[in-house]
Amino acid sequence: MFSSPTPLRAALLAQILGGIAAAVIIQLAYPQLFTVALAGAALQGVCAALIGHWLGAPKWWLPIHCLFMPAVVLASRLNIDSNWYLAALLLLLLIFWRTDQSRVPLYLSNAATARALKTMLPAAPCLVIDLGCAHGGLLRRLARARPDCRFVGIEHAPLPWLWAKLASLTLPNLQIRYGDFWRQNLASFDVVYAFLSPVPMPRLMEKALAEMRPGTLLVSNSFAVPAVTAERVVELADRRATRLHCYRM
Ligand SMILES: C[S@@+](CC[C@H](N)C(=O)[O-])C[C@H]1O[C@@H](n2cnc3c(N)ncnc32)[C@H](O)[C@@H]1O
Question: What's the gap in Å between 103 CA and the centre of ligand 1?
Answer without folding.
Answer: 10
